[in-house]
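Run log // design_07
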């Protein structure tokens, strides 16, 4: 028996095909970045998804505007749910560390290393601070489409490992530096050298650093958001306390395992956090000179 094809069936097929083409187009890298810089889209997409979720723990409307302007796919499921929530909680922790420093030094200088398309300055500006967003020239080129510099807000178009950026930062104010989603792509020697150079450059400085665990480094290819990336994790520590042994000039202050902090967000996260390899896989620790 031949099945009759109706207009409704034809339209349904056309719509499915069209939606697949649209999603395929949106899934492409709209920035044409490669390597580590391309991972900025993971963070951007994750912040957007959590912001658009009614149960979301952050609301970052600026990131949503940027993603839509770029044509970045931020449809539900376009990023791992664990990455979505983890990135959101990571954002909260970096906000907390930055705000704590600014509560003590309102006119401080803040340096955001490997800023990508982060929106932290817009959210935390107190009208007194100086803020420097640093990243590769091709990333800053994209960033200029969405943010404008002024007397207190500047871009630095350099690699973090080009230590001449230290000369661009005023030395007459306390300095807070953040490294979010960055050091996991460095070698241990590169991290040591950077910390040593920063400690030598500034008298009053604090450094908030995100780090993954050694387990995560060994299993980069199994990470749902990293398995298709060219960039791979190369450095990790079980605890930021390990840094004190390096004698870089920094002292360990404290650390926060941010996946453990968002257990209330969903049952799946509570279950996964029962396993240390997940709950303590990522942390943010604070160093102080």
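design_07 sequence
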């Amino acid at each position: 028996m031949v099945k009759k094809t109706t207009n409704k069936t034809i339209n349904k097929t056309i719509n499915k095909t069209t939606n697949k083409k649209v999603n395929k187009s949106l899934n492409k890298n709209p920035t044409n970045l490669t390597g580590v810089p391309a991972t900025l889209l993971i963070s951007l997409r994750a912040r957007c998804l959590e912001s658009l979720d009614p149960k979301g723990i952050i609301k970052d409307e600026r990131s949503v505007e940027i993603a839509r302007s770029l044509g970045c796919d931020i449809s539900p499921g376009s990023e791992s749910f664990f990455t979505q929530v983890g990135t959101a909680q990571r954002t909260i922790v970096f906000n907390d560390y930055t705000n704590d420093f600014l509560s003590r030094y309102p006119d401080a200088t803040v340096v955001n290393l490997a800023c990508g398309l982060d929106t932290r300055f817009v959210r935390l500006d107190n009208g007194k601070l100086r803020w420097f967003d640093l990243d590769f020239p091709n990333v800053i080129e994209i960033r200029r489409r969405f943010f404008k510099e002024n007397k207190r807000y500047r871009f630095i178009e350099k690699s973090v490992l080009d230590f001449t950026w230290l000369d661009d930062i005023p030395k007459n104010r306390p300095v807070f530096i953040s490294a979010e989603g960055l050091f996991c792509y460095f070698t241990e020697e590169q991290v040591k050298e950077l910390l040593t150079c920063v400690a030598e450059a500034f008298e009053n400085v604090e450094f908030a650093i995100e780090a993954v665990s050694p387990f995560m480094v060994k299993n980069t290819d199994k990470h749902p958001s990293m398995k298709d990336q060219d960039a791979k994790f190369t450095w990790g520590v079980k605890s930021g306390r390990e840094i004190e042994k390096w004698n870089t000039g920094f002292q360990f202050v404290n650390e926060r395992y941010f996946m453990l902090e968002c257990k209330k967000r969903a049952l799946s996260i509570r279950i996964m956090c029962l396993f240390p390899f997940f709950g303590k896989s990522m942390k943010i620790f604070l160093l102080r000179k």
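Confidence is low (pLDDT under 50) at residues 1-25.
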